[in-house]
């Protein structure tokens, strides 16, 4: 059988295309984009510290943003905390914002501190880990709790003067043993 230059190069092109396809598939399987599609699901729960009664349960995901807004008890100013959920179900404090300094408010938390055009103080890149959030709920002090911008609870909807815990349970897809946290 005689191989012409044209058929030889056609076979080479097909082989290179096949090899490129295989490499592309391998790259996609190992890429962060694939990991986003296989991201871990999680559940946020708020429950009574003492009795364990669950008041709020919301489905979420690793990487989701949690917003916790409250009113500072001494200064009566709004205080906003911005977290993300890590792969272990821990809450990582990314930033805080508030309109003024006062009792108990840190002066230099995080790597970046600035005042925006509206006078709001921002402290960012805090990177502080919390396995859970624990607080004494108040209908007036606890404002909004949001996951990726969606309201999941307000202080007035939770029991007054009750010690509460907020935890994140992480479960990987296909995990039959239940949550890790």
Strand content: 35-45%
Q: CA-to-CA gap between the ends?
A: 67 Å
**What's the total number of strands?**
11
Structural class: alpha+beta
Low-confidence segments: 33-38, 173-181
Tally of individual domains? 2
Overall geometry comes to: globular
**H/I helix tally:** 2
Oligomeric state, counting identical vs distinct chains:
single chain
Order of helices and strands: HHEEEEEEEEEEE
Estimate the helix proportion, in percent: 10-25%
Provide structural commentary.
The chain is an alpha+beta fold. Strands 6-7-5-4-3-9-10 form a seven-stranded antiparallel sheet, with no helix packed on it. It has a four-stranded antiparallel sheet with strand order 2-1-11-8, with no helix packed on it. The chain has two domains: 5-34; 40-171, no CATH class. The N and C termini lie far apart (67 Å). Helix content is 18%, strand content 43%. Strand 9 (142-147) and strand 10 form a beta hairpin. The radius of gyration is 25 Å and the shape is globular. The chain has two helices and eleven strands, in the order ααβββββββββββ.
Topology:
Elements: H1 5-30, H2 32-37, E1 41-48, E2 54-61, E3 65-71, E4 78-85, E5 91-98, E6 112-115, E7 121-130, E8 133-136, E9 142-147, E10 150-154, E11 163-171
């Amino acid at each position: 059988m005689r191989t012409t230059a044209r058929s030889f190069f056609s076979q080479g092109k097909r082989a290179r295309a096949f090899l490129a396809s295989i490499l592309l598939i391998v790259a996609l399987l190992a890429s962060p984009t694939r990991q986003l599609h296989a991201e871990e699901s999680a559940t946020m729960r708020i429950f009574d510290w003492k009795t364990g009664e669950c008041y709020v349960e919301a489905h979420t995901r690793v990487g989701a943003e949690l917003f916790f807004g409250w009113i500072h008890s001494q200064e009566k100013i709004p205080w906003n905390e911005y977290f993300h959920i890590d792969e272990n179900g821990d809450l990582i404090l990314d930033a805080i914002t508030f309109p003024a300094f006062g009792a108990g408010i840190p002066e230099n938390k995080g790597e970046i501190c600035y005042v925006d055009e509206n006078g709001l103080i921002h402290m960012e890149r805090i990177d502080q880990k919390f396995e859970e959030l624990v607080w004494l709920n108040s209908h007036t002090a606890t404002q909004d709790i949001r996951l990726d911008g969606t309201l999941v609870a307000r202080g007035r909807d939770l029991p007054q003067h009750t010690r509460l815990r907020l935890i994140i349970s992480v479960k990987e897809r296909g995990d039959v043993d239940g949550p890790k946290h």
